[in-house]
Design goal:
The protein is an alpha/beta fold and 296 residues long. Helices cover 48% and strands 9% of the residues. Helix 2 links the parallel strand 1 (34-38) and strand 2 (64-71). The termini are far apart.
Length: 296
């Protein structure tokens, strides 16, 4: 039976391999990059920072990491936890202090979901800080399961085939967002965070409030995976194996320009005639049906 140290080593190798592949597949990090690693205090961002630092030491290119936390002035937020943890690492860091908590509580009625407004405010602050400090890439800690859940949220509630891209250029073209954990499973990240004993800080802005739609989707996916092991990976793989010609979006595929240039030969015409003569009425098919079969 493997001991804890061995399991942690194997898991770290897996996470490094997954992150390295994601970085390579989407050209997330380039020589000379100045990367803002957004550290929320959750298991995902702690793991992202840890694995990025491991890769940084072995990478054939040079890039800088800056850990950044946004202190949203939530009541009873343990302000000393992250600075103390980051002081123990060999990394530059910065704490941005912005009271988004009061804004969200003022604008959102009690009991309503605060996540959307909170996310917009957070994104605006992070983007502005990144531009001001000449950041070339903004790293977020979203993982494989986040990407799958977002796909189904958009499918069920937004009417869109859309998810979280591993790499994104902001609308104003001034910021590039990367998700180095895009290929990592949430269960692996959770286990790694447990091994490393990261000082996890829960988000108390919402209290016990949960995004009910995401919770429903997460439960559905969890049940699927339990019933059919490997289904989540199959779904995730499908997001990178898209066939626009077999969907319904004319902006992605020129359906209107499709022209059937097939020509029916004399032999095929004779064959159709023979079939019409030979087959009994109960088994006859029209010439059009046969043409469709022949050209498919």
């Amino acid at each position: 039976m493997k001991n804890k140290a061995t399991e942690e080593k194997v898991l770290a190798q897996l996470l490094r391999r997954n992150m390295g592949k994601a970085i390579s597949d989407f050209n997330m990090i380039e020589d000379g990059d100045k990367i803002m690693v957004c550290l929320s205090g959750g298991k995902d961002s702690f793991t992202m920072l840890d694995i990025l630092q491991q890769l940084q030491k072995k990478a054939p290119i040079q890039f800088e990491l800056i850990a950044v936390n946004l202190d949203q002035k939530q009541p009873e937020f343990p302000e000393d936890v992250l600075p103390r943890y980051l002081d123990s690492l060999d990394i530059s860091y910065h704490i941005i202090e912005e009271d988004t908590y009061s804004i969200v509580k003022d604008k959102i009625p009690e009991g309503k979901t605060t996540c959307s407004l909170c996310s917009r405010l957070r994104r605006g602050i992070i983007y502005s800080w990144a531009i001001k400090n000449k950041i070339t890439k903004i790293a977020l800690g979203h993982h494989r399961d986040d990407i799958i859940e977002t796909f189904f949220l958009n499918l069920f509630f937004g009417g869109k085939l859309k998810s979280m891209p591993p790499k994104l250029l902001s609308d104003d073209k001034k910021n590039t967002v990367i998700r180095p954990l895009a290929y990592a499973k949430e269960e692996d990240i959770a286990q790694y965070a447990k091994f490393k004993e990261f000082p996890i800080i829960p988000c108390n802005l919402c209290g016990s409030q949960e995004n009910l739609q995401r919770k429903q989707v997460k439960k559905m996916l969890s049940n699927w995976e339990e019933q059919f092991p490997g289904r989540l990976q199959s779904i995730f793989s499908s997001l990178s194996n898209v066939a626009p010609s077999h969907l319904l979006d004319p902006s992605l595929f020129p359906f209107k320009d499709l022209i059937n240039n097939a020509v029916i030969t004399t032999e095929q015409e004779v064959l159709f005639d023979d079939l019409e003569t030979v087959l009994p009425n109960s088994k006859k098919e029209t010439v059009n049906q046969l043409e469709i079969k022949n050209l498919s």
